[in-house]
Amino acid sequence: MGIDSLVESVTPYRLKPIWAHTYVAPFFVLCAAWAYVWLENYGYEEYYELGMIGFAIIGVLQALVLLFCHWLVSVRCALTCTYEPNMNNATYVKVTPMPNNGWAELVPLVRTKRGSQTKLWFEFQRVHYTWNADVKSFETTVFDTCRPMVFFQKAQGFESDEQLDDAKYNFGENKTEMVLPQFWELFKERATAPFFVFQVFCVGLWCLEDMWYYSLFTLFMLMTFEATLVKAQMKNMSEIRNMGNKSFLINVYRNKKWTKVKSDELVAGDIVSIGRSAEDHSVPCDMLLLRGPCIVDESMLTGESVPQMKEPIEDVEKDRLFDIESDSRLHVIFGGTKIVQHTAPAKTGEGIKSPDGGCICYVIRTGFNTSQGRLLRTILFGVKRVTANNLETFAFILFLLIFAIAAAAYLWIRGSQDESRSKYKLFLECTLILTSVIPPELPIELSLAVNSSLIALQKLGIFCTEPFRIPFAGKVDVCCFDKTGTLTTDNLVVEGVALSSNEEDGMIRTASAAPSESIQVLSSCHSLVRFEDDLVGDPLEKACLTWCDWTLTKADAVMPPKSAKGASGLKIFHRYHFSSSMKRMTVVAGYQTSPSADPTLIVTVKGAPEVLRDMYEDLPADYDQTYTKLTRQGARVLAMGIRKLDETKTSELRDKKREQLEQNLRFSGFVVISCPLKPDTKSMIKEIIDSSHSVAMITGDNPLTACHVAEVLKFTKKSLKTLVLDEIDVAVVTWKSVDEEVVLPLKPGEKRNERLAFFKNYEFCLTGTAFQYLVEKEHRFLRELIPHVRVFARMAPKQKERVINELKSLGRVTLMCGDGTNDVGALKHANVGVALLSHPYDATKAAEKEKERKEKIDEAKKLVAVGATLPTPPGVARRGEAPAGARARAQVHPSVANAQSRLDKLMKELEEEERAQVIKLGDASIAAPFTSKYTSIASICHVIKQGRCTLVTTLQMFKILALNALISAYSLSALYLDGVKFSDTQATIQGLLLAACFLFISRSKPLNTLSRQRPMANIFNAYTLLTVTLQFVVHFGCLLYIVNLAHQADPKEGPTDLEAKFTPNILNTTVYIISMALQVCTFAVNYRGRPFMESLFENKAMLYSIAFSGFAVFSLASGFSPDMMQQFELVLLPEELRNTLVMCVSFDLIGCYVIDRVLNFFLGDMF
Questions:
Q1: DSSP 746-771
Q2: Which of 387, 925, 1072, 1099 is the 20 to 30 Å CA partner of 294?
Q3: How confident is the model at residue 302 (pLDDT cuts 50, 70, 90)?
Q4: CA angle, 945 as apex, 931 and 488 as ends, to 5°?
């Protein structure tokens, strides 16, 4: 069990003195021992090379141990620390985070003294953890909000400096500052990464082989790539820094008076006054709203553009406990959001009065513990390095290393037979064989494969905070969707009010013909507010009020249209807001029959028909029949009830429970709302189903409505009946079909065949109640059933989360698509979570803005050329500038003055645009790893396409890498003994060719439509291993055959001098040309292309690169350009050998292509 959602475990350690570290003393002893053995047993002069090799091995081992301490925290703890069971004696702790929350770290344990108290704490990912001696565990120092509402309602802030100091000591201040690291710090971190160190080691080996050009070219390529990544990282960090809140002065109630303090000095427990600011300041931290309602723009946090209404807790029941999970949506203003409208609290009521007309709030979360802070931490620490399939990469390299070790052992044994050969040179060659398994481009290419997809998704309006999830998108098995706002539009249409099941007069289509009580419920029972000229709130409630044609005022009153004679306006006095657990909303409103009379109070209730069923005084006989019939037609149905109260003053209602108001209601009809599907939902769902994915709907809506939508979208087959498991009668649990014609027991039978037939012959729908019952009582059956369920209805947010986790536990890679509010849990827990924002992103407008920006920059350049000067940044005085009025103003030409004013205006516009372009927190939503700016589910298809493209790219890179590594291992061992070596120029050109081809592979784009075939999920499968092995056999056969022919054409006499300087000859030329040709063939054959991404002929860059390389190889083989041969340090081949070489390459290409495609057809992903 972890400490919290971030930290899994904390282990205490004591740091050893430096001489006791394992990488110091043992290696000192080892060096002394080797020196003694070498000098005493072998001799300095006779075995100089052996002695140096021994010291080199010890040096490399010591460097490796040091680096492993840097790379792996567990190794560092084992070699530099001792485990300390007593936390009071520990100096460091190893902190292991939860999966996908960054990496383990060894952090110092800090002791802070304050009087007689000593606080033991550490900071991990900007969060403070304090040692609690009573429970023997570390805890996050956050304010405990689980208190009765009366605690907050009666709060008076900090009444003394001692209380304030205590709070600062325990909770810290409201700082979300980020220290930006220097370029060299970040570069050092990347330069000590395993791959980079390995590549620098390889470069050193190549230098010892006198391959200077190739070594320096590779080193330059690596340094440039890493420096580019560091620059990009620094830019991202500065953008994330801009997301944090800027400090500003805010009114705080301390020591029983209002004072102004900086917002970054706020502490949990402070009482503040905040409202809409002229300077457009963000809310500095998470606050509970005590007095005065407000409207908040939360788009920076959730991505939702619809402003949210926030209610104070002054009228909430005093003894009710505050639950941050359920109450935060209505009563908490989150840090990073903006107040767009607020109402000053009444001056007559109880509680603290506001000094500036702002809302009174109680600070509950500060710094990186706020919702905004958590999102910043996810972006900062979620995943440090962007690569695909790390574990598989390591396993595959180990697999290739087996062949390399075999080749190196062969070379050492054969080479050692000749006593005259240099052991140093032989050892160097063996090391080169082992390192040839990993080409220097590998980490670059693996990063590029993911980064290319990231960039492509950003261009499509999809922002990703956790790049490691992209390859998961290519493996998705099940796609789950929320219904309302995801599959259907937010533009709801009210069909009318249904009073009975009678088709002719039971449904009233117009508001003017509807009963007055129905209109009263629809116009008053809502959470809408007037913001400037717009209505803000739930789209369903907006649709109902618009249909009634009533008008909402800023004073929380609703007025009837002028055409409605006799109807009086309603004033809303109290709201019990809608919650997904209660499935209803209740409002106390009132109207006046005459100006002097007290208002007549009414209770209006609106909610799920099954919930309101027991609240009516007289239930209509056809109640159930009416709403089930409407829901089967796909409509959203809400029941309405109304009741007149005897009380005339709202103060008399304060002590009444909600349940007392929600009884003896009069039935006011059912409001019938249709949710039209989004224009492209049908076609996108068809594409997802046709691409071999299962689909499921997880919604909070009525099961019959959801089943209708599922049938329209072909989630369920029309030929099969859909069984619904809804209300649970513990005695007999039964499935009922949508039309109620079929009733079946919960379990079909114990036999496997019976169960398979049951799952095959029906479609299934589970409601939240039924799902909970199965989780608690029939969990084993639920695990069998859940992959076959197509509709989950009336699901609470926590239940949606549980569905995703159940599917994942069955080994299904799960995608969840929903909005950024009540689906957050499910989106976070899915392997791939995509949040759709409610405001559409227009790519055309974005392109137009970019064009305008470029035009402005061009115009500014021209104006500077005319004589205008760029404005000085604010606060920066020009050098030698005199005080104002000290110097007479110089005469400026009118044309220059006009140019100057135009330039100043342009620069101001560009600066504002630049400010608007910084990545906002709304782009990276707290809701999900992927956030789409589009409202369409087309973004799901884009994410899956890019995921598949990344997967396939990685797979083909590994195939090519494996074949090249195996050929290299043979070339460097067996051929080295024949005296075959490449010149520096040849190695550089070959490296360039490989780098170019790998680069163009990673730039492949996915196709416009998803294919029915799904790519291989991992590297280790029969197809990949067999195709690599058989292709290598063909390559090996060709290489062996050509080398034998070269030997015949140019026979050698006497032993081969392995240390001789490189000189071009027939054998070297033949091997170089054939190895280049084999590499070109490997790229051409193993490029996957369709059906997942562009084919070789569509990927023009890749095609031209292979065509150019092929042409170069053919030119070298035919020898028609002597100058080119000389540049490549090659010799002209005999005609017979030349012709055989061309035929051999052609055979290799055709043979490998046939092998790969035949194996792919039978064992791979080609149907």
A1: SS--SSHHHHHHHHHHEEEEEEHHHH
A2: 925
A3: low
A4: 50
Angstrom distances, CA of residue 408 to CA of 422, 976, 1072: 16, 11, 21
The pLDDT score that the predictor gives to residue 391 is 66
Q: Which of 482, 556, 701, 1156 is catalytic?
A: 482
At 999, list the tokens.
């680069």
| Sheet arrangement for strand 666-674 | 507-508, 493-498, 666-674, 636-644, 600-607, 584-591, 570-579, 557-559, 551-552
Please tell me the distance from the alpha carbon of residue 434 to that of residue 699, in angstroms, as a whole number. 55
Give pLDDT tens digits for 652-666. Answer: 776 677 888 888 899
Angle at CA of residue 653, ends 647 and 659, nearest 5°: 110
Tokens encoding 944: 């899956």
Let me know if 280 is a catalytic residue.
Answer: no
Q: Left, alpha or beta for 107 (phi > 0: left; psi -120 to 50: alpha)? A: beta
CB 370 within 8 A of CB 282: no
Average pLDDT in the chain? 81
- Token digits of residue 187: 């570069």
Cα 549 off chain centre by: 43
Kindly tell me if the per-residue pLDDT of 798 is higher than 50: yes
Q: Which amino acid is at 1010?
A: L
Residue 806 has which token pair? Answer: 């159940």
Torsions phi, psi for 193 (to 5 deg) = -70, 150
Q: Write the single-letter amino acid at 193.
A: A
What is the residue-wise DSSP string for 865-929? HHT--PPPPTT-PPTTPPPTTSSPPPP--HHHHHHHHHHHHHHHHHHHHHHHHSPPTTTS-SS-S
One DSSP character per residue, 37-72 reads HIIIII-TTTTHHHHHHHHHHHHHHHHHHHHHHHH-
Exposure b/e, 730-743, CB count within 10 A at least 16 = b: eeebebbbbeeeee
For CA atoms 872, 877, 879, 882, give the dihedral sign: positive
To the nearest 10°, report the CA torsion of 525, 530, 536, 541. Answer: 20
Name 586's bridge partners: 576, 605
Residue 349's nearest CA partner among 654, 720, 2 is: 654
Residue 20, CA distances (Å) to 78, 94, 579, 652 in order: 12, 19, 61, 77
For the chain, how many residues are written?
1167
What are the CA-CA distances from residue 170 to residues 163, 366, 404, 571 (Å)?
A: 11, 12, 58, 45
Question: Nearest 5°: CA angle at 986, between 1061 and 978?
Answer: 50
Tell me which H or E stretch contains 600. Answer: strand 600-607
Do 868 and 903 touch, CB atoms closer than 8 A?
yes
What CA–CA distances, in Å, run from 1093 to 5, 151, 429, 476, 791? 38, 60, 40, 17, 32
The pLDDT tens digits of the residues spanning 1061-1112 come to 667 778 888 888 888 888 888 888 888 878 888 888 888 888 888 888 888 8
Please state, in angstroms and rounded to a whole number, the distance separating the CA atoms of residues 768 and 748.
Answer: 21
262: tokens are 């900086």
Residue 485 gets the label, from left (phi > 0), alpha (psi -120 to 50) or beta, of: left
CA 260 to CA 883: how far, in whole Å?
Answer: 33
The answer to whether the beta carbons of residues 456 and 946 sit under 8 Å apart is: yes
DSSP 1050: S
From CA 929, how far away is CA 468, in angstroms rounded? 10
DSSP-derived letter for residue 321 is B
**Using CA atoms, how far apart are residues 1040 and 971, in angstroms rounded to an integer?**
10
Cα angle 288-289-290, degrees, rounded to a multiple of 5: 110
Nearest CA among 62, 72, 63, 76 for reference residue 31:
62
If we measure between CA atoms, which residue out of 752, 747, 751, 802 comes closest to residue 772? Answer: 802
